[in-house]
Amino acid sequence: MYLRIVYAKPEKRTRRRLGVLRLTSSRCDDDLEVDLLLGWFKVHLPLPPKDVFRGGRGLCWFKLDARACIDRVRDLALHLERRGERVWQVYSRNPGLITYEDDYQVVALPDSARLV
Hints:
Structural class: alpha+beta
Number of helices: 4
Strand content: 15-25%
Distance between the termini: 25 Å
Order of helices and strands: EHHEHEEEH
Number of strands: 5
Radius of gyration: 14 Å
Largest sheet: 5 strands, antiparallel
């Protein structure tokens, strides 16, 4: 089982819901708490190589045993909700074709992205 925490409002161009780690820094650039949380991720969460996203179609999913990461991303989501953002938790047993994996996360191409 895998988990994504995403903005409820889909991106206009792709109609996909973006993960909170992807856009948060641009939406909260004046917030010390957000900066601290994002700084923690820069130190503790490996950054997957760009090529595993296959042209921006790959999605990051947390493994459920990555408790420290999940706790912090939930703290980030709570902070975003206090600022008026709607945030969803999405679970999946099969996120798609896995193109990258580390101890904390996978990058997967959803089935709909593989049809293109």
